[in-house]
């Protein structure tokens, strides 16, 4: 049987998988009793089929045996679309002759004379349930088990939403309804990808992801540029949201905030081709989630610095209180993110990246323009915001100076979206120097305002160490401000590169058909 497989995979801790089961039961959709599924993935010893994007597997479940071949796989985060050929077998043996001629030829062409062998296998206890959604029907499989490759193994604990009938919208609707408030890993690679990495002795990395979106090539259409940008940001946000929810690595919250800011800038720059209501809602949610993460990011940066001083002076009680406060901040931020249905937001981004729906009605002509022409007006507005405060930099109060720093970040992210072009480099270099100056000044302000929840008997000792940490920096504040003013003058004298490249009136929106 040939067909196209559409599915969204989500990694869940065992405890969260049990929570999902209870949620399904409460909705009258309890999964059937699990059954053992053993799947052997076949390939050459050097993984030629995997390198060619083919997955050949023999699956045994409940006395039945199936041979399947997956190819032409495309992914956006954990959403995967693949062409699948599936054949029932009487015995769990691979026979190239049993495949359709074209597929058999493709496998033989990639494998050459090398024999196929079991590269790795998965053994999972699978429970399944059928879900009805607005746009179709979905099969939800809950898998618990492991991947084995020689002496190596990796646990499997995941939910797999597969389209059974209807539109792919049903997959995302079902996933969002069930996972919105759970710490799910939404960028989960396929079992085939994880197994192949394990077989090569290099398990796929988990944890935070520091990724700047690949800028589009000059002249790329606005539609293609935004699609690729949204896909990259959706995956990065999903990955770092999960890291923030389950890991203590400080890079997770940091990269999550950066990705959310980049998303907001992208929505602002591509506004002429975006559905206004959708773009506004996405930007507001991204802003709100960034604010929720902010206290944890501040704690991740400042607590280790003050903690080092406390340990240096032998203040064990203060050190213990700082660690407890840091842990409490992390727990509170996680609760607030889950309460805000942050995972649901990430699923929404993945849906828009995979299926579209973000386009502005009547913007067909704009969508086909080079992206430079679409983003140039937005860059111009960002530049005007920067100039409004930058021209008064020497007399700005701390709050206005902080707003200027945020405007500079937006302009920097917007400039980086345009790629590594010669016309942008002088402007970007001057912008970065000014941003670094203001960043150091802002760090002093953040330290000054930092007030973790500590026991009353530790407050005086904490204030003393904070003052000690900030003393050296305060002495540099005037120097930093003077340097920032010089760097502002250099930036203001640099030609805005986008004006020469692309600034021009955009085509009017088409009138809707009667």
Short description:
With 514 residues, this protein is α+β, with helices and mostly antiparallel strands. 54% of the residues lie in helices and 19% in strands.
What does this structure look like?
The protein has 514 residues and is α+β, with helices and mostly antiparallel strands. It has 2 domains: 2-199, Hypothetical Protein Pfu-838710-001, CATH 2.40.320.10; 222-501, CHAD domain, CATH 1.40.20.10. 54% of the residues lie in helices and 19% in strands. It contains 16 helices and 8 strands. It has helices spanning 14-26, 48-51, 101-111, 169-179, 191-199, 222-246, 251-269, 276-312, 316-339, 342-355, 364-367, 371-390, 398-417, 425-449, 456-492, 497-501; strands at 2-11, 35-43, 55-61, 64-76, 79-89, 117-133, 136-149, 152-166. An 8-stranded antiparallel barrel has the order 1-5-4-3-2-6-7-8, surrounded by 4 helices. Strand 4 and strand 5 form a beta hairpin. Helix 12 runs antiparallel to helix 13 (398-417) and helix 13 (398-417) runs antiparallel to helix 14. The longest helix is centred in the middle third of the chain and has 37 residues, at 276-312. The relative contact order is 0.10. The model has no long low-confidence stretch (mean pLDDT 91).
Features:
16 helices, alpha+beta, 2 domains, 8 strands
Layout of secondary structure:
Layout: E1 2-11, H1 14-26, E2 35-43, H2 48-51, E3 55-61, E4 64-76, E5 79-89, H3 101-111, E6 117-133, E7 136-149, E8 152-166, H4 169-179, H5 191-199, H6 222-246, H7 251-269, H8 276-312, H9 316-339, H10 342-355, H11 364-367, H12 371-390, H13 398-417, H14 425-449, H15 456-492, H16 497-501
Antiparallel strand pairs: 1-5, 1-8, 2-3, 2-6, 3-4, 4-5, 6-7, 7-8
